[in-house]
F-box domain-containing protein
Amino acid sequence: MQTIVAFPEELILVIFSKLSVKQLATCRLVCKAWRDPAARAMFSQRITIRSEMQALQLYNHLTRDPNKLYLINSMHFKLDQADLPFVLHHLLHLTFNKRMKRMTGRVKSDQFFTTLFDIADRAPPSTFNRLERLPIYTGQNSDINDRKYLKFKNAVHSFSLRVVSDSQSLDGVSWRDVFDQFPNLTRFTLSGAPNGLGAIENKLEKCHRLKELYLHDIFYDGLTMDRMTREQMMAWTANNVNRERSLRTLIVKALCRPELIEYLLYKYPHVQHITIRGRLWFPNNSIRLEHYNLNRILDAVKGIHHKHITFVLPSYIEMKQVIEFVITRNEDIGFTIEHFDGQDELVMKIDSH
């Protein structure tokens, strides 16, 4: 005699939570009793929308069974067209609510995001406090990203700021004044032309939770900035720099002056991984100053275990002079010829894992 045992619904839901959406769809067809718990498990997982047809199918299902709407908290979009299909507009109005936690993917349509902005404008201020992610905007309208950052501040995890004449965007946003309003901002890229170390500090001083900082193609007045001794740098940083202890990864691709590296490692004393790549600053073609600057930079990074350093050496330096410097240091220093800014250059490399 065959015995059929019915599993408690709580156990079925636990089992279903481990299955893929495709497996859950099969379970719905196997057993009538599994249909509803399988559907609930499906809608509790991340839902991916790649086409207008998928959006229509989801929209039809939710309008037939509105109770499933309250299970949705994660959606992934892959939409590479500039226009937003009509059904997607309505789907966003259905699904984008206070229960939504993650909307990921890549979207080109401006209207996709303006629809989200309109929904948020009509909702109470705290409605989207749980929202952790929004899709990456792949269109050309910079205003969309500006509005996205300002409208959904909890969803900002990374930010890129290019400094031209100031830190304002075309609509007049002073970004450095709102960085401390982004509680989840952990990755920051700074590029462009801040006017000296003080201007870099001005842009970074309200970023209190950074884990990764990337200085890329940054021109910080390094060629003309007044030279400061190690002692002068210590005094300047003590009086002008707010220290932050959360940063773990620092990547610098710029003209390599000791003042820049000393400033950054004073500001971020708990860096564990550092990458530096750039031309070594060489004022007045002085070998003595060259060695002095190298010593200051290498002393600054000495305590960091994971480091990848590539210095492009001045063309006038001879290998004999380089060797004379290397034997004064304890680091494992190597040399090679690399293509840099369109020409072959002698580079010094230090890799420590």
Q: What stands out?
A: Residues 90 and 156 are 25 Å apart (CA to CA). Residues 1-5 have pLDDT under 50 and may be disordered.
